[in-house]
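Predict both folds.
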Amino acid sequence: MNSSQLFIYAVPAFAVLMLVEWIAYRRDPDRAANGQSGRDTASNIATYTIGRVLRPLAQNLVPFSAVIVVAALTPLHLSPQHWWVWVLGFVVTDFCYYWAHRADHRIRLMWTAHSVHHSSQYFNLSTAIRLSWVHPVASTMRGFAWVPAALIGLPPWMIFLLQAIGLLYQFPIHTQRVDTLPRPIEFLFNTPAHHRIHHASNQPYIDKNYGGIFIVWDRLFGSFAEKSEPIRYGLTKNIETDNPLKVNYHELAAMIRDVRHANSWRGRFGYVFGPPGWSERTPVSSETVSDATATLSADAVATRQLVDAVSAHRSADAMNTYRSMEATAERQLVDATTAPRSADAATASRSVPMAKRGGAASERQSAEGSTPRQSAAPQPVR
C-alpha cells in the first residue's frame, strides 16, 4: 500500500469523524459558535477536493525527487524486514517532519503554502484538510527535510509511507472537543491540546508546537508552549474570505507585492527567504518580536507590582495621616468643650469680691449724697 492509497482509504474515516464532530457541535450551541462555521467548513472541503487533483505532481513527485536520488546514492541500505528499522524510521521521519514544519513557519516562501492551513479562524476536523494546492518551489524546499532519512538507508517508499501515517495521525488532533489527556501522553505525544496552541495567532503561542506525532522535539528545541491565555485562531492578520482561490494564494500575492516594492536586493531576498512579517525597514524576526513581547510583558508586570507597592505605601501613609488628624481633631474638641467650663468657673470666682466692693461703694455714695459737694467756680476768660 502506498501513501496515495492510504489517503483514499482514509477519506471515509475523515467524513465519518467530521460528521460526528458536527453533530456534537449541534448538540452544544455554546461551543458551536467558536468551533465551526458552515462557510468555513465548505471552504476547507473544497480546498481539499481541488487539491487532490492538483497536488500529486506538484507536491509529491517533484519535492521528493531529492529523497529518491539520495537513497540511490547512499552506501547505507536498511532492510524493512527488521522490526527495528520500522521503529527507527518512525522516529526519524517524525524528526524530519518537525524541521520541515518549523521551516514552513520560519521561511516566508514556504509559509505562502503553509499559511493556507492556518488561515481558518476556526479549529475543527475540517481544518486538517485545509491544505495548499500548487506551490512547487515551496514544496520542493520542504522535501529536502526528509533527505537525512534517505541518507541513513531508509527506502524511499518507507519514508513516504511513514510520512503519510504521520499526517493521518494529525487529522484527529484538529479538534476542540477533546480536552487535556493524561500527563504521560501529553508529555510525549502531540495532542489536541498541544495542536490547538500551534494554530493560535496570539502571543505567546506563535511558532510553537511544531511536532507531528511526538511533542518531545519541541521540548528539546525550545519551541514548546502550554496554554496560558485564551486562544485566538487564524492568522495575525486574517484574510476574511472563504474563497478557496484567495485562501490558497493570498500570501503568495502579498509576498510578490513586497518583492516588487523592495528597495534593494537585500530586501527582495528578505521578503522571500526571511521569516513571515520581515520588513526591509524593520528586519526583525518573529522570534525577536516574541522575545521583545515577553520582555515588555515582564516589564509591565514589574511596573504594575511597583505601582501597587507605591500605592500600598501611600495608602498606609494616608491612613496614618488620617488617624493623626482624627486624634488632633478629637483633642481640639475636648479642649474646646473644656475651655468654656473653665471660663465660667473663673468668672464665677471673680463675681463674689466684685459684688462686695460694689456694695461698699454704694454705701459711700449714699453717705456722700446726703452732703452734696460744691462745684468749683468758673475762671474768667482772659
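Second protein follows, with its predicted C-alpha cells after the sequence.
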Amino acid sequence: MNAKIKSLVFSITKTNILLTIIATLLISLFNFRFGVAFLVGSAIATINFTANAIVINKVISNRRGALKIQLSFVLRMLLILLFTLIFMRDVKELAFYLIGFILHQISIFIYTKKIRPYKKQ
C-alpha cells in the first residue's frame, strides 16, 4: 500500500480509536449496554474503512478487479446489517450503535482539519 494511503488510514484509525475509547467510557458510566453498542458501531466503521482502503488499493495497483470491489462492498454491508439487526431489539441501543458508526466520519473530519495547515505550504 502507498505510504501516503497507509499514513491516512493509520491516522484516521488512531483518531477514531482515541475518540471511541473516551466516548465509550463516558457512555458506559451511564449505561453499559449503550457503551457496548457504541463501541461495536465504531469498531465496525473502522473495520469497514480499513477493508475499503485495502481492497481499493489492491484493485488500483492490479488495474482490474471491479468484481472484488463489488463483492467486498456487499460483504461489508451485510456485516453492518447483521449488527444493526442485533441492536434493533432496543431503539436506544440501535441509536448508540449508529452514533458509534457515525463517529468515524468525525474522525475523518478531524484528520482533514489536522492536515490542512500542512497542505498550504
